[in-house]
Amino acid sequence: MRQPLIMGNWKLNGTKASVEALINGLKAPAAAAANVEVAVCPSVIFLGQVEQLTAGSAIKFGSQDADLHTAGAFTGENSPVMLKEFGCKYALVGHSERRTLHAETDAVVAAKYVAIQAAGLIPVLCIGETLEQFEANETNAVVEAQLKAVIDVAGIESFANAVVAYEPVWAIGTGKTATPEIAQTVHAHIRAYLAGFNAAVAAKVQVLYGGSMNAANAAELLAQTDIDGGLIGGASLKVEDFSTIIAAAA
Ligand code: 3PY
């Protein structure tokens, strides 16, 4: 049985006050959903605050990215080793906003994935196709290539200690969501593709759905066999909406 994982991606949002209110507001819903793991990914500037606020609670946290280097002359970057020291359990890697806005290639994403695991963090590998690729029926080929780039470098066994997040780019920040049927079809394909390399690893890996999951559509998406949780953008910034999604996964 794969444990449901509900993870908030706060992106570039928050203030000290809103972070405090959000974490405090999520403590009870996270504790109530004992079979669900709840995690948030704040901007790194809030990690110290989140580490303190979540102490003793059921809420885990991670970063939205990590550098592929451990230390050195890399101005502006955050080392996975530093993120680990600040209590992160997870690090997102390859989010479409990083791939698009920061020109991260499959090779860079794979190198970051390796660095994240080497630091003792769990990478949440984000994959997904653009609208153009979706309309050209290229979804399977795109997610396969994104997975293969990581498998080639890190090996299929590395997925025993990783999470995959399928986020169709056309559903991110657009308010459009893949229908539960579309999402389930792609999730099943991702699992089948991984099973071609190692069936046991594929059966265990959590595959989250991301891309405008919200309080209204979460239950239907989370009911799908191969959807093991969600990576949630905007709705993770509101206690009520995120709590509804957590409850839907329980
Ligand atoms: C979204 O839902 O907008 C996301 O990008 C989650 O990562």
Secondary structure layout:
Blueprint: E1 5-9, H1 16-32, E2 37-41, H2 47-54, E3 59-63, H3 80-85, E4 90-93, H4 96-101, H5 106-118, E5 122-127, H6 131-135, H7 139-154, E6 163-166, H8 180-195, H9 199-204, E7 206-210, H10 218-222, E8 229-232, H11 239-249
Parallel strand pairs: 1-2, 1-8, 2-3, 3-4, 4-5, 5-6, 6-7, 7-8
Helix pairs in contact: 1-2, 1-11, 5-7, 7-8
The protein binds 3-hydroxypyruvic acid (3PY).
What does this structure look like?
- The chain has 250 residues and is an alpha/beta fold.
- The protein has one domain (5-249): TIM Barrel (Alpha-Beta Barrel).
- The chain is 44% helix and 15% strand.
- Strands 1-2-3-4-5-6-7-8 form an eight-stranded parallel beta barrel, surrounded by six helices.
- Helix 1 (16-32) runs parallel beside helix 2 and helix 1 (16-32) runs parallel beside helix 11 (239-249).
- The radius of gyration is 17 Å and the shape is globular.
- Bound molecules: 3-hydroxypyruvic acid.
Q: How many discrete domains?
A: 1
Bound molecules: 3-hydroxypyruvic acid
Radius of gyration in whole Å, from Cα? Answer: 17 Å
What is the name of the CATH class? Alpha Beta
Number of strands: 8
| Assembly context of the chains | single chain
Distance between the termini: 13 Å
How would you sum up the major sheet? 8 strands, parallel, barrel
Number of distinct helices: 11
Strand order of the largest sheet: 1-2-3-4-5-6-7-8
Estimate the helix proportion, in percent: 40-55%
